[in-house]
Amino acid sequence: MAGAVAGGVDWVQVRERELCDAELAELAEAVARAAREAAKRSGRPVRVLINRRSDVALAVGADGVHLGFDGVAPDEARTLLGGDALIGVSCHAPHEVADAEGASYAHLAPVFAPLSKRTTRPPLGTEALRAARGDRPVLAQGGITLDNAGACLEAGAAGVAVTGAILQAADAGEAARGLRQALDAATGAPT
Q1: What's the CATH architecture for 92-187?
Q2: pLDDT beyond 90 at 135
Q3: Are strands 86-91 and 105-108 parallel, antiparallel or unpaired?
């Protein structure tokens, strides 16, 4: 993970559903510490979010929480975590992004066929990203690669959320660097 942060990952989401509360908090603390140390060494900022668990995010001092369909409402999470917390939601259609009241951002997925898991949902494509543009940033998720990351930004995504492209790579740092370069090229940012 440190290599991925050094390579350009600016948000890390701790997503582990099978752990008990104490184990999840321990893992989240370790990930947050490692991510922040790697960010400090590389001079790049990083934000740490916890999947679905506002209580764990609060306990470990995470930057926010990513809520699932079965989680608390964004406003409830914000009340617990504070006004500066990142509160994200998972969406599977453009209209769900529009309905995500109180969220800081939304993940729209799957834009392409996921690399890291099987899905029962058909890929939405970049047209769904265009349709989802609105009041909050949208992160494209699902099947994001070096070849299509730029197209997601061109379609209106504020960024991308990846799992397989980095975690399944032989070198997570190199994979993150490649994705960062593709995203920076799409926005015209200096690399």
Answers
A1: Alpha-Beta Barrel (3.20)
A2: no
A3: parallel
**Token digits of residue 58:** 């609060």
Task: Give DSSP secondary structure letters for 3-65.
Answer: HHHHHT--EEEE--TTS-HHHHHHHHHHHHHHHHHHHHHHT---EEEEES-HHHHHHHT-SEE
Identify residue 137 by its one-letter amino acid code.
P
Centroid of chain to Cα 5: 13
Long-range contact set of residues 29-37: C-beta below 8 Å, sequence gap at least 24:
29/60, 31/1, 32/60, 32/61, 32/62, 34/1, 34/2, 35/1, 35/2, 35/5, 37/2
For residue 67, the surrounding DSSP H or E stretch is strand 64-67
Q: What is the mean pLDDT of residues 171-186?
A: 93
Type of residue numbered 134? G
Residue 190 has pLDDT above 80, yes or no: no
Distance CA 8, CA 121 (A): 29
Contact 4, 31 (CB under 8 A): no
Q: pTM of the full predicted structure?
A: 0.91
Residues noted as catalytic: 15, 90, 117
For CA atoms 165, 144, 177, 147, the dihedral sign is positive
